Amino acid sequence: MSQSNDKWSAEAYSKAAGFVPKLTTTVISYLSAQPTDKILDIGCGDGPLTAQIAASIPQGHILGLDASASFIQTAQENHTSQNCNFKLQDCRRIAECAEAVDGSWDKVFSNAALHWILREPSTRDAVFKDVYSALKPGGIFVFEMGGKGNVEAVHSTILSVLVANGYALSTARESCPWFFPSDTWMTRQLQKTGFEVEKCELEYRPTKCTPKSADGSGGLEGWIKLMGAEMLSVVEESKREDVVRQVCDVLETVVTREEDGSQYLNYVRLRAVARKA
Ligand SMILES: C[S@@+](CC[C@H](N)C(=O)[O-])C[C@H]1O[C@@H](n2cnc3c(N)ncnc32)[C@H](O)[C@@H]1O
């Protein structure tokens, strides 16, 4: 990711989506980290989850890879334990990182990142092949990502608002940064790569938005600005705030709960455990 394309900042992420590294009890239980495990974390972000895993593998080691220079810098500053390292790497091309694909890893882990990494159809096979190469025989690939139907209302609303503002549907679709596959697609893809699929499941998990900040960096608005940055980038800068407002206005009654005014996004998580034969 070039510096100019790097939308991530640890501050905006924690205000708009601080729940992402926290809502991980199930995928962490599937990882079942053992004290000596050597684990590769794909799309580690600013590293709180990577550091949490590092603490559970005192004689092991974890390497976090991410394409955001800003996130990798924050991760390196905040998480300095000896068995936890971070490296700037576009994970569409993991093989560029020789130590990552040397076949020595017990586990490859990923949380909330593969739906970005797998966006481009042409690079998908290579990602799975590289993860397979990274693992020892018998090693496991454990991940959670957005699955079919994830944040469907937000996704459709942004597309519709872009079209209502004069952008072609094809342009709006092209700008979407996510790939949310079904469990059927994922099972086939893992099997095609050579993995034995032990689990592959979808979970519907409505998720409460963070509180809205005065500067627009949290809440529904903050989520749309951060996670939907690529889709908003088709709009000229002077009109972007207005488009965000239109998206929030449409979503208001869809995502707000009557009992207390809280707002929920309908997350759908796709989780899998796949073993290298
Ligand atoms: C929602 S964050 C999740 C971060 C972290 N795993 C967590 O649970 O908090 C998504 C991450 O995917 C990373 N990402 C997106 N595309 C990527 C790519 N092509 N290669 C590596 N990382 C990528 C982003 O930089 C970001 O850190």
Query: What is the CATH superfamily classification of the domain at 3-152 and 178-209 and 266-276?
Result: Vaccinia Virus protein VP39
Give the distinct bound molecules.
Answer: S-adenosylmethionine
SS summary, helix count = 12
What proportion of the residues is helical, as a percent range? 40-55%
Round the mean pLDDT to the nearest integer and report it: 94
Characterize the main sheet: 7 strands, mixed
How would you describe the overall organization of this protein?
With 277 residues, this protein is α/β, with parallel strands linked by helices. It has a domain at 3-152 and 178-209 and 266-276: Rossmann fold (3-Layer(aba) Sandwich). It has twelve helices and seven strands. The chain has helices spanning 10-17, 25-31, 48-55, 69-78, 114-117, 121-134, 152-164, 169-174, 183-193, 219-227, 229-232, 237-255; strands spanning 38-42, 61-66, 84-88, 105-111, 135-146, 195-208, 264-276. It has a seven-stranded mixed β-sheet, sandwiched between helices. Helix 1 (10-17) crosses helix 10. Bound molecules: S-adenosylmethionine. S-adenosylmethionine binds next to helix 5.
Overview in brief:
The chain has a domain of 193 residues: Vaccinia Virus protein VP39 (Rossmann fold, 3-Layer(aba) Sandwich). Helices cover 41% and strands 22% of the residues. α3 links the parallel β1 and β2.
Give structural attributes.
12 helices, 7 strands, binds S-adenosylmethionine, 277 residues, globular
